[in-house]
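tool_call: predict_structure(chain=1)
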Amino acid sequence: MNLPSAAVIALLGLVLAGCYREKREFQPPPPGEAAAGAKATPILAGGGPALQPGSALTPDRSQLDENAFAVNQGKRLFRWYNCSGCHAGGGGNMGPPLMDKEWLYGHEPADIHASIVEGRPKGMPAFGGRIPDDQVWQLVAYVRSMSGQLRKDVAPSRSDSLSGPPPENVRDNEKPVAASAAAGH
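tool_result:
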């Protein structure tokens, strides 16, 4: 069956458009240079190495939560940087749980990025300058997957540990609420 050349080109365009889900970035964008279409968000002092000296902006890479490879890299980094030491695999221990609907400092990617880079009172250290900014954004994407905030085809599908919580891609979507609203119920 011969398809008209316009239909073949359109089909090829659709196939290529879906490739971002599995795109692998082996080298982050140069410092101070945002990816095409990315926004810049202000962060406080202590920003990571992606910042230009004297700059208060870092590229917003929150679109990584649409990339399965980046989310899986975030899961690997969560284990490597021992985030489970405080967050107990996302269920909470010394640090707050990351799998529920209660978010103390906000559930948006910029809020989670700020928590990692700047730290938070009562225990969360500032990792700005210690973890490269592209890895922080991968961690942000994975943390959002832990409470079911990502699409099912992007979230990791299995746990790397012997036993643990259900995989991120089968968890129910927890609707994040402000800490003050959660305490009132």
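agent: The chain has six helices and four strands. Proceeding to next step.
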